[in-house]
Amino acid sequence: MQRLLVLLALAEAVTLAYADDSTEEPHWCYEIQATELNNNCKGPDHWPGDCQKTHQSPINIVTTTARLDKNLGPFSFFGYNKKEKRVVTNNGHSVMVLLGTEVYIAEGGLTSQYQATQLHLHWSQEVDRGSEHTVDGKHFAMEMHIVHEKKTGTSSNKNVLQNPNDKIAVLAFLVEVGDKINNGFQPLVNALTSISKPNMSTTVNEINLMDMLPNEEKLRHYFRYSGSLTTPTCDETVIWTVFKEPIKLHEHQFEAFSQKLFYDQEETLTMKDNVRPVQQLGDRQVYKSRAPGQLLSLPLPTLLVSTFAYLMVSLLR
């Protein structure tokens, strides 16, 4: 009981922090809210803090220009396989799940261990408008972010620990709509009816993070770049990992988010299109991990032709 009360108190604190990163008035909101009559809030073009700087997120990932980084190996996931009681809340901008203190990641090209704090999602009512990041210009139905904070004392490189640009590591998962129920997501979907209004929270008994994700072998394929939070104050302190393999949800699971959640206490505006517009990449470089078994520097047909030509020349000598 005491642990549950602590989690609920933490949920309220994180909700307030996530929903109001700035003391400025009017409050920040998404474009769909800003266009509502009598809604005195700041849309994305007027967000405060660092939101108007040049290394912002999300971005469009152009796969043909992503540069291979051999240091981007597989992640190690700790605590992701545990079925734990989690606090789930509607923070007025998204649905958020608190992840406690025993979930963290390492490796994956990161210089330290990063402790998971929460996950949240972005979505639309349409299957091609709900992701924040795009891949070759394509939007997905949803996007899930698992947010991690750097754990101090987990790197032997003191200069790395002092780097102000990698305080947070976000794992981003794009979501597609399919024809099969995603059982790993169902506990979260079931909880939505209990948190329809902002600042409402509930507890879910069995949320297993790894069950919500694609097969772990598929998590070797990802893109990496440096960016920002996608909500105010848009701090440029985030190492982004965007996984290539999407999560798949059933149509009914996907629709539940925009049908059961609301931006307002009066339940007049359903929560959807909570997506920040794509930002300019600027002078940044997007990197990609090496796929397992990716040893050939040339396409296989080209390599076979070259090998055959070499053998023929050798035989004619």
Automatic annotation (TrEMBL):
It is a lipid-anchor; GPI-anchor. It is found in: Cell membrane. It catalyses: hydrogencarbonate + H(+) = CO2 + H2O. The keyword Endoplasmic reticulum does not apply. Its cofactor is Zn(2+). Pfam families: Carb_anhydrase. Its EC number is 4.2.1.1. PROSITE patterns: ALPHA_CA_1 (PS00162), ALPHA_CA_2 (PS51144). Catalyzes the reversible hydration of carbon dioxide into bicarbonate and protons and thus is essential to maintaining intracellular and extracellular pH. May stimulate the sodium/bicarbonate transporter activity of SLC4A4 that acts in pH homeostasis. It is essential for acid overload removal from the retina and retina epithelium, and acid release in the choriocapillaris in the choroid. Belongs to the alpha-carbonic anhydrase family. This is Carbonic anhydrase. The gene is Ca4.
